[in-house]
User: Fold this.
Amino acid sequence: MTEISPDIYKDGHTDIAHPIAKKWGEYRLSGEEWQILWIIIEKTWGWHKAWENISLKQFYDETKIRKSSIIRVINKLTDKNIVLKKENKNLWEYHINSHFEQWKNVLKKENVLKKENGVLKKENGVLKKENKKISEPTLTGNFPTPKETSLKKLITKKRNTCIPEHEIFDYWNSKKIQIHRNFEKFKEHIAAALKIYTKREIKDAIDNYAYILSNPDRFYFTHKWEIDKFFTRGMDRFLPVNFKEKDYLKRVYKSKAELEEERSMGILSRVFKEEEEKENEDKNT
Assistant:
């Protein structure tokens, strides 16, 4: 009988209760979900911690999954109530929910695909086609007057400015990087980012990005993303924990003649200074 080498435990090990391990055996999770879940398990239970802050960069470094996909996968795990998260000092902390009775019931035998209007349903491995007839809408009731419509629009606009997605949208537009008019087009992208980052982190990242773009004479980086591309391709590098101004500075290359001239001017400057100091000493004696 082959025994497990004790050397494999030299860097520590992670304990998982048997009921949890058995429950995961019944559960249907994608490969990417398992990758992200194991990172959280190792950084919490592996170090005997209930909660742990894990940055998007850490997830990427250890899984090599695209950052936009990492955000999507974390959202899936939190929606299923397997992973919990909370904000702590403008950072996200993660926790494995060991109360598996609270997990959403997504067992292997209960994989059901639904679609509206003449759809295919998958129930226990069998595809069934259902045709649904769409009833024509009927116009009934009292129609709103132009005044009521305007009031409704005003109330809706006021309400929208209070929601986090709209706040971030307006903040982005205030920086005049790429001004967007259609909030609904970007609402889902902003909501997805807010599930990973705090509002303060997002605003700080936008500030850093706008600062770089507003100084083209000093910084080489001039690419202007739309807000959704910024979230998926650029925001992580502009977060306060990752942003370094020196990384974006222009590199100035000088010719040999220019360097020699600077050196000569430096020598002359020192000579003139020494002569002035000597003259001042002579006057004082």
Residues 107-113 have pLDDT under 50 and may be disordered. Residues 143 and 169 are 32 Å apart (CA to CA). DSSP finds ten helices and five strands in the chain. Residues 256-284 form the longest helix (29 residues).
